């Protein structure tokens, strides 16, 4: 069963947290990560993700506004990951800090993401066909859906930070 991420932009997490509390769901994990998105055309994603204890290249494929993980490649450190991206032809990376709180629910995860300390986003990580049920339970609206990668969303909002790969 392949999981897909469906993303939404919301004003705050207050409403969602109240719903999760009523459902008796508590945070299963939380973390802060730094992401280095390889800049390219299209909505597929190739990025370096730096965790507190590891670094990985993540390759995701976009289909109809949902993102599926295709591959995760461990790298030794941030420098090695940036070199990997450069060797694949990327000249610029977009920098994004993500703080997230994950909630296990009905065989998937509801993830509350604070992007660059200001953009509130909810990710539903579920198998195809289950997103709409959770979407309705949480009161998420189709117009809140983010169908592009976060770096492109931040660019649309005029808040993207980037750096050249040397």
Structure described in brief:
With 166 residues, this protein is an alpha+beta fold. It has helices at residues 14-22, 78-87, 131-138, 150-156, and strands spanning 3-10, 29-38, 45-50, 55-63, 66-75, 92-105, 108-115, 119-127, 145-146, 161-164. A hairpin with a 3-residue loop joins strand 7 (108-115) and strand 8.
Name a few traits of the molecule:
166 residues, alpha+beta, Hypothetical Protein Pfu-838710-001, eight-stranded antiparallel barrel
Give an overview in words:
This protein has helices at residues 14-22, 78-87, 131-138, 150-156; strands spanning 3-10, 29-38, 45-50, 55-63, 66-75, 92-105, 108-115, 119-127, 145-146, 161-164. The chain is of the alpha+beta class and 166 residues long. The chain has a single domain, classed as Hypothetical Protein Pfu-838710-001 (Beta Barrel), CATH 2.40.320. The chain has an 8-stranded antiparallel beta barrel. The chain starts with a strand and ends with a strand. The mean pLDDT is 96.
């Amino acid at each position: 069963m392949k999981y897909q991420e469906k993303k939404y932009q919301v004003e705050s997490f207050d409403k969602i947290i109240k719903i999760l509390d009523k459902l008796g769901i508590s945070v299963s994990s939380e973390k802060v990560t730094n992401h280095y998105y390889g800049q390219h055309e299209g909505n597929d994603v190739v990025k370096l993700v730096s965790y507190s204890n590891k670094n990985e290249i993540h390759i995701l494929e976009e289909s109809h506004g949902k993102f599926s993980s295709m591959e995760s490649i461990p790298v030794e450190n941030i420098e090695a990951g940036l070199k990997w991206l450069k060797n694949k032809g990327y000249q610029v990376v977009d920098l994004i800090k993500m703080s997230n709180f994950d909630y296990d629910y009905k065989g998937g995860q509801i993830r509350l993401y604070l992007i660059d300390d200001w953009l509130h986003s909810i990710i539903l990580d579920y198998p195809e066909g289950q997103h709409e049920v959770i979407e309705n339970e949480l009161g998420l609206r189709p117009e809140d859906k983010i169908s592009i990668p976060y770096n492109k969303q931040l660019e649309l909002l005029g808040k993207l930070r980037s750096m050249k790969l040397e």
